[in-house]
Specification:
Rossmann fold; 8 helices; 26% strand
Amino acid sequence: MNASKDIQPLIASLQQHGAGQARVALVLGSGLGLLAERIEKAKIVSYADIEGLPKSGVPGHAGRLVIGELGGVRVVAQQGRVHLYEGWSVFEVTRAVRAFAALGIDKLVLTNAAGGIARRFRPGTLMRITDHINMQGRQPLAREQRGAGSPWDAALGAALQQAADAAHVRLESGVYAGLLGPTYETPAEVRMLEWMGADAVGMSTVAEALAAHAAGVRVAGVSCITNLAAGISAGPLSHEEVMEVGRQTASDFCRLLEHAVPLLDRS
């Protein structure tokens, strides 16, 4: 696939809807879409009205693009994303972030719901992503795009921590492991991930971070620990639990990002 040609219709559609003036892009994961309701002077566009933007069928992903201001900064927020486990290709999963980069947006905040592996975490913990482990078996980059190092920007991470302190929100930090899904991990897989150094695990985010970084975008990320991973939790895992804890954590999550966006814009 010609990845550059693949995003041209989406770029044109985003420009038509006014996303080209945004300075920071946000991708809001499962149960975290409430932040979009805090965006001021908002223009809300259904994914169905944006050419080339795939729509998720997963509960908790509203499938809307919200363009407006957060903390006085022009932003564009994806209220929901698509996942590899839904059958989308790695190029389709990263289409939006690649289009944001082509529009000149150079800062991206990726958020997700994740299972907690680190024993210090409890449901509702917010974790700044410092690095990741790619266990999805997919790479969104062409051979000529390969590069060294982590896509997670240290200065943007420091801005997130500064925002958390100002907002009086507890923000942990750790390594996110991205798996393909759609099944939750087994206890044995969680023990393996813990041994590898992962603090949280989910089914998204990694491909977006790699593709955005390769396109010149600076990337930060926040995981909401919505459940303890298999073998650590007392009972079976469910998407309903993910959604409920996401709703319970929404206030802290929104305060964090409202404080963070102006700092990210200046970083």
